[in-house]
């Protein structure tokens, strides 16, 4: 009787064990058959299809941008050409202006002047703004080919200028001091000046000239 009961208990435990294992295997198979959310998500890897598709779309968009840039190129080239031409014209005018220069004496001082440039001199009396003035003390006139040297001035040579403004130089501080006398003086002074612009140099053609020699 005892052996039969032991066999029955062993059979029952084996049956229950088989039922548990079958249930586990069924649940595992169901889980494998159903697609998980993680597998359904796109993989953002180096060889993923999403990256390939995005890269292809990027390459298709690039030619449109390149075409727009190529179409805009002629406008920029035209602007650059205009700017270059303007700069060349300005340089040519500047070169023509600087082909001649002169040395003039104004108020006991000598100045080198070029047509088109401005100059600060000592205060010119009875000269108002926008007045036309003539400088007759021309000591020297130079061109590309000849040099006219005055003895002491170039006869009939004149420098024409226009008065632009009347002003003052920078302040100069004059400080006086005497030791052991309690004497100190601090005085500021601004020298008046006149700004003129050179408009032309004429009248030197008839004066005897010396040819320029290359050094």
Automatic annotation (TrEMBL):
Gene Ontology CC annotations of this record:
ribosome
**What UniProt keywords are attached to this protein's entry?**
Ribonucleoprotein, Ribosomal protein, RNA-binding, rRNA-binding
Specify whether Metal-binding is a keyword of the entry: no
A single GO molecular function, which one? structural constituent of ribosome
**Which BP terms from GO are recorded?**
translation
Q: Which Pfam families match?
A: Ribosomal_L21p (PF00829)
Q: Looking at the record's lineage, which domain of life comes first?
A: Eukaryota
Family label: Belongs to the bacterial ribosomal protein bL21 family.
According to UniProt, the name of this protein is: Ribosomal protein L21-like
Q: What is the scientific name of the source organism?
A: Arabidopsis thaliana x Arabidopsis arenosa
